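Weekly puzzle thread! Below is a chain. First person to post its structure in token form gets bragging rights.
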Amino acid sequence: MAIRYAGNSKGIHNFLGKKTDFGSLGSQGIMEDANNFAAMSMNNAKVQGASIAGAAKVAAAQHWADAGGRAASASAQNSMVSGVTSGLQGVIGGISKAGGFGKGLFG
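Winning reply:
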């Protein structure tokens, strides 16, 4: 494809424009790379932070579950001891109504 420059009184160098500033392009590329690296670092930190926070929530939930299990176990043991104590009181009460410890049953 041919371009016609006839009638251009200023000359072809004015028509083509200024030279490319490669230093400016290089600086812009370096700045964009630095910004991309900073953004990537921040995003990686956010992902790691979310991962750590998630692990902490899981661990906390496990501790609460363990504590709930221990509370239920303690309640069950309390019920058993209460039942045994109540049974012993009934036996002792029955013995005393039957004449006591020294009057016939064990004496």
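Puzzle host: Confirmed. Bonus trivia for everyone else. Helices lie at 12-16, 22-97, 101-105.
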